[in-house]
Amino acid sequence: MQVTSKADARSAGLKRYFTGKPCKHGHSAERWVSTGICCDCDRMFAAKYKEKSAARRKAYAAEYHVNNREKILGRSRQWRDDNPERVKELNQKQYWKNAEANRAAASAWRRANPERKAEANRKWAQENPEKNRDSQRKHYARNIEKQRERSRLNHAARRQEEKEYSRLYSKKFPERKRASEGKRRAQKRGCGGGSYTPQDIREIINLQDNRCAYCRVKLRGFNFHIDHIKPLARGGSNDRRNLQVTCARCNISKGAKDPLEYAKFIGKLI
Ligand SMILES: [Zn+2]
Ligand SMILES: [Zn+2]
């Protein structure tokens, strides 16, 4: 930096000059021609002043706000009335800045003030009949979709549960499962009539000493068929008196044959 005197700088029309000597605070900096003060000192003083005066300015502003509340509110109301588009824009900007928090706060307020929310809704609906109809339509459509989805899910979950339950159930109580299957089959064919209970099947199995009615093979666990002595297909009833238990092979081999014919067929009757 060029070393000049204040007088030379002033006559040259400069605002600052440099003496080459440090100021009393040790800055090796230019000085203002107008005051002779070191530029670094000047900046330092300004910053210190700003810092010191900040609290005072804040206090003053607060006091002013309290004393001129009506005036300020009136001005800001006036501005909002004059600039509705800007207000909308600013509100939106503000909202999106904290969208997540705002949504949470709004929903918390709605939960805490259900009556006031309902009142506000009514008022809005009265003032905006067109929009209200539109929003109701949309809400309805959205809900229908949601409900359908919910019922689809519930249905699927229930089916899954039922399947699982029935699997466990039939494992634990094979005769019950067979009883209900038999009833369903009989109903499907729409013939015979009559019904039986799982208890009936247990008793029949006991009476047959746990053996197939035809080949006398030992029946174990789930491994038995409920046989209609006179087949349902031939008008036999689904009543306990028309039932016996057999092994799978005999049951299948008998099929819908007449019991007497079948007995002859396997050589039990002559
Ligand atoms: Zn200085
Ligand atoms: Zn058998």
Query: How many angstroms does the end-to-end distance come to?
Result: 137 Å
- Helix-strand category: mainly alpha
Strand order of the largest sheet: 1-2
The hetero molecules present are:
zinc ion
Total count of strands: 4
Q: Please give the count of helices.
A: 11
The general outline is elongated
Could you give a quick summary of the protein structure above?
The chain is mainly alpha-helical and 270 residues long. The protein is 65% helix and 4% strand.
Write up what this structure looks like.
With 270 residues, this protein is mainly α. Among the domains are: 1-96, no CATH class; 175-265, His-Me finger endonuclease fold (3-Layer(aba) Sandwich). The protein has helices at 6-11, 39-67, 69-82, 84-97, 99-112, 114-127, 129-172, 174-189, 198-207, 248-254, 259-265, and strands at residues 16-17, 31-32, 225-228, 243-246. The strands form 2 sheets. Strands 1-2 form a two-stranded antiparallel ribbon. Strands 3-4 form a two-stranded antiparallel ribbon. The longest helix has 44 residues, at 129-172. The mean pLDDT is 86.
Properties at a glance:
single chain, 270 residues, mainly alpha, His-Me finger endonuclease fold, two-stranded antiparallel ribbon, elongated
Write the layout of secondary structure elements.
Layout: H1 6-11, E1 16-17, E2 31-32, H2 39-67, H3 69-82, H4 84-97, H5 99-112, H6 114-127, H7 129-172, H8 174-189, H9 198-207, E3 225-228, E4 243-246, H10 248-254, H11 259-265
Antiparallel strand pairs: 1-2, 3-4
Bound molecules: zinc ion (2 copies).
